[in-house]
Amino acid sequence: MDVENGAGKTGKSWLWLLAGLVVINAFWGASGVAIKEAYLQLGTMEILALRFAIATPLLIGATLLWKGRKAFNVELKDIPYFAALATIGVTLSFFLQVLSLDYTTATNFTLIFNLSTFFIIFLSAWLMGEKLTNNKLIGAFVAFAGLALIVTNGNFSLSPNILGDGIALMGTLAWAIYTVLGKRANEKYSALTVLNYVFIFGTLELIPLYFLSPHTPVTAFTGLTWLSMGFLAICCSLIAFLVYNYGLEKLPASTIAVFIYIMPLSGVLLAAIVLGEAMTAYTLAGAALIIFGMFFAEKKHGKAGASS
């Protein structure tokens, strides 16, 4: 591979990696659309549990092929920490994300989730003593103004999507907490090692919940349901996180961070094309403010953060 630590070397491998980062952020942007389609037949816990039940064994296999068994070498004392990360990052955050899409639009969900950047900034300052720059504060103010436009749609009476938007915001906050707490584990282990253990413990937590909730026999799944779940498990979870982790090995975090702007764009466009969701002037203005706020906050110190 001729991409080494962001050294700027060119070549086909470098171009393939950049193309891969574009694609996986488009995948993450499209996840809300896929969840909406899965909701036509499945419930919240079914979507969540099946996504990880499919993705986790595949991730373990891919990690063994790529890095070998050494990727799973961790100290026994750190296992409870991985389990706690899984509870916050998978069982809680992903549950709230999926649940929110039963009550709000894929467009709103995608844009709200991108506010995780700012929750991470503020939590990192509070819990880890990271510096809050003027750029970050101004960017956050602009982005949350964009959120206000999206949630209210210019009407300050209660929106029909207000419940789902609120749940999405809680899921976004939970993801930010997971990301900040995960920094401690990432100081000791590779991001891929942490990811595997989080997926493993998350799946173990979700499987009992799946069987305790009403669920549709997999033999009754429609083609659209299989397509949606396959996309969520393989494209959004397996491929996306593998490419993301490979990118972190080869490129600076500031370079990886640039690609996050693809996520809200793909999410909004695909929600309009696939689901027929309306893009009002307030939605577009709110999206523009959120994207600008993200850019302004990160233009000096890029930090990449994986999405849904």
Automatic annotation (TrEMBL):
Localisation per UniProt entry: Membrane
Topology relative to the membrane: Multi-pass membrane protein
Keywords: Membrane, Transmembrane, Transmembrane helix
Gene Ontology cellular-component annotations: membrane
TM annotation in the entry: 14-35, 47-67, 79-99, 111-128, 137-156, 162-181, 193-212, 224-244, 256-275, 281-297
Pfam family, one: EamA
Source organism of this protein record: Methanocella arvoryzae (strain DSM 22066 / NBRC 105507 / MRE50)
Domain of life from the UniProt record: Archaea
Protein name per UniProt: EamA domain-containing protein
Annotated InterPro entries: AA-Vitamin_Transporters, EamA_dom, EmrE-like
Main localization (coarse): membrane
Keyword Transmembrane listed: yes
Domain EamA: 21-152, 163-296
